[in-house]
Amino acid sequence: MKQQIGIIYQDENILIVNKPSGMLVIPGRNVYENETLVGILKNQLRQRLWVVHIIDRDTSGILVFAKNPETHRNISAQFENSKVRKKYVALLSGVLEENQGKVNKPLIISGRDVRIDITGKESITDFKVLENFRSYTLVSASPLASRRHQIRIHFWSL
């Protein structure tokens, strides 16, 4: 049985969907397009889509796709110029000392390796604790300039 992706909104220019956890947005190592979100959507809708942004395989959440090159350029520019803010909810192992704050640590990306490094690109994550549990913390996190694994690495560093 083919997987169907839930569509939140669509018009002649954009498509907004809820990506399930465990699925790549675009092809990767040993993953073909028909196994990815974009491939499944192309098959489901029978039309070409332009990827505006991606989230990690293990992350679920809302994604925007463009249905034409002009819309892709427009929305991509909004993401690049920080006109769009991404917001994540994450469950962290451990308890944070602060109830809200900002992590400002530059990240360097080298192949599959991402780490904090003074020579890296500026990377800032705003966060707010939503709820504390015995050994976990539920947070809302907003990266200002989103880098691969930014939220994961920033919280690991605290």
From TrEMBL:
Biological processes annotated in GO: enzyme-directed rRNA pseudouridine synthesis
Source species, domain of life: Bacteria
Pseudouridine synthase RsuA/RluA-like domain ranges (all copies): 13-155
An example Gene Ontology molecular-function term: pseudouridine synthase activity
InterPro entries assigned to the protein according to its UniProt record, in alphabetical order: PsdUridine_synth_cat_dom_sf, PsdUridine_synth_RsuA/RluA, RluA_PseudoU_synthase
Pfam families noted in UniProt: PseudoU_synth_2
Protein family per UniProt: Belongs to the pseudouridine synthase RluA family.
Identification of the protein by name: Pseudouridine synthase RsuA/RluA-like domain-containing protein
Organism listed in the record: Endomicrobium trichonymphae
Taxonomic lineage from the root: Bacteria, Pseudomonadati, Elusimicrobiota, Endomicrobiia, Endomicrobiales
